[in-house]
Amino acid sequence: MIIFFKKSTINWCESDYYYSKYIAEMYNTLTGICLCVSSILFYYNYKNVNTYKNVLVNLYPSLILLFIIGVGTFLFHGTLLYVFQLLDELPMLLLCIEYYRILTTILKYNSLNYKNKEKDALFNLQLIILQIFLCITIATLGFINDILQIVFFQLTIFIFVIIDCIKLYKVFVKHNMYYDNLRIKKIKAEEDFLYNYECLSKLINIKNNIIKFHNYNKELKSSLSIAVVTSVMSVIVWKYDQLQCNYNYSNIISGHAIWHILTSISLYYVNKMILIFYHCNCV
């Protein structure tokens, strides 16, 4: 029962219990809801879109984890109890690992619709073992040393964010290569059409695919721009919040609360990019 009453290993800069004796950090608590909204809004925006509704199911785990993070954030900042800190931190780590899993899946699929159930099962099992190990380690460190728990968690998150960014870049490269190959095929089909009119259906199909990919690329570029800008701004605000922690936040919204809002926006567009990539590469 100790875990239910243990105080969190970290306390943020917002003044505790300033607005209410029942809510520790008012702004940080309320803005945690933005993470839940990001998950729900994404689901309802794309569940009835014919292009994506068949592949949206592959993002269910990440959307559920994002919603749980929002609940954990709300409870954590509202109570500053360790049990709710874990409800905030562990799903955050699991979300990073889930992004790694789905991006790896996208990279493994190719135009031949690659599927290797044995390797996929082994890969998923390895990830499950890793998740269990990291979750137990992070939870246990909180009872050993507060600083060690904070450093280990933040370092683990940082490593997986970097890995996910690298994976996302590789998926972008793969996507652009496929788009370039389509344009090369179009030129070849146009040349063949000059000598063989039976190639017309092939040429029309390639042109239609190019139009589709052009539209996807426009969505990807705009989503990437928003995701990068909001994520960079969120990190800057979060670090500035830590550096200026002695400032009195009683009457203004804290930097960490702004981080919640910006991260919610960023993750919405990260999910959108993954949805488009999954549709283009795995369908």
How would you explain this protein's 3D organization?
- By secondary structure, the chain is mainly alpha-helical.
- The protein is 76% helix and 0% strand.
- The chain is built from nine helices and no strands.
- The chain has helices at 2-5, 26-31, 33-46, 60-79, 82-108, 117-141, 146-193, 200-243, 255-282.
- Helix 5 (82-108) runs antiparallel to helix 6, helix 5 packs parallel to helix 9 (255-282) and helix 7 (146-193) packs antiparallel against helix 8 (200-243).
Query: What's the β-strand tally?
Result: 0
Dominant shape: globular
- Contiguous low-pLDDT stretches (5 residues minimum) are none
Alpha plus pi helix count: 9
N- to C-terminal distance: 48 Å
Gyration radius, rounded: 23 Å
Order of helices and strands: HHHHHHHHH
Question: Into which percentage range does the β-strand content fall?
Answer: under 5%
Secondary-structure-derived class: mainly alpha
Approximately how much helix is present in the residues? over 70%
Mean pLDDT: 84
Biggest sheet architecture: none
Question: Keywords for this structure?
Answer:
single chain, 283 residues, mainly alpha, 9 helices
